[in-house]
Amino acid sequence: MAATEILELEEELEKLTRASFSVVPWSNNTFLFRFKEAEDRDLILKEGPWSVANNLLVLQPLPDGGSVADIVFTHCPFWIQIHGLPVEKMNRANAELMGRGFGRLLAVENSHDGILLGRSFLRVKAETKLDDPLPKGFFLRRKSGYDDLWISYKFKKLTNYCYACGRIGHENKNCKFVSREAGERSGYGPELRTGRRVRQAAIPIEEIRQQVDEAEVRVNLLLQRRPIAHDDGDA
């Protein structure tokens, strides 16, 4: 992590908490975050994951008496949306069941009743193993007469990841896990992120100029057809 990236991260975290902290380079791309207040540290851990230059920053608390060398950075907590479930399946029991499928379940979005219908999807927070491909979803088998239903996942604050193999930590061009042909059929893409914006296609400048010229011609023709106003009154 470069010095400019450390400053960028410090500014982002300070906007959230106004916390007083420092970042100390440690070893092997590992950094120690030192907070003056434990409450600020806990809030940063709770609101993660964080990213630097769109690369995932994996944060782990340092236990009392522990060493940085004792910490493993193999898992990261994500808020995960579960889309496409039938209404009768949208309850806390199913949210917990599916949440445990990602790894260690940390939280389920709260609801006043047992049926979680505050949104069109369920939301859980779970630790995800970073060495494995991100899960895309699953087919839900239904009763006779109904086709299997695709249930999809979306990850909040998901940073750069490989659309070929589905792993965090590298991009398609650097993938060593699958062939190029297999990567093109992987089914991974930006849809795995929450809040994805649809980017409008750029309009070529030649097309814009043509549209302007055509508009000017239409305006000139319209002006030629209109009578010219004049005043017959006495001066």
From TrEMBL:
GO MF term list: nucleic acid binding; zinc ion binding
InterPro entries registered for this protein in UniProt: At4g02000-like, DUF4283, Zn_knuckle_CX2CX4HX4C, Znf_CCHC
Pfam families according to UniProt: DUF4283, zf-CCHC_4
Domain of life: Eukaryota
Name of the protein in question: CCHC-type domain-containing protein
Keywords on record: Metal-binding, Zinc, Zinc-finger
CCHC-type domain boundaries: 162-176
Record PANTHER family: DUF4283 DOMAIN-CONTAINING PROTEIN, GLYCINE-RICH CELL WALL STRUCTURAL PROTEIN 1.8-LIKE
Lineage: Eukaryota, Viridiplantae, Streptophyta, Embryophyta, Tracheophyta
Organism, scientific name: Rhododendron simsii (Sims's rhododendron)
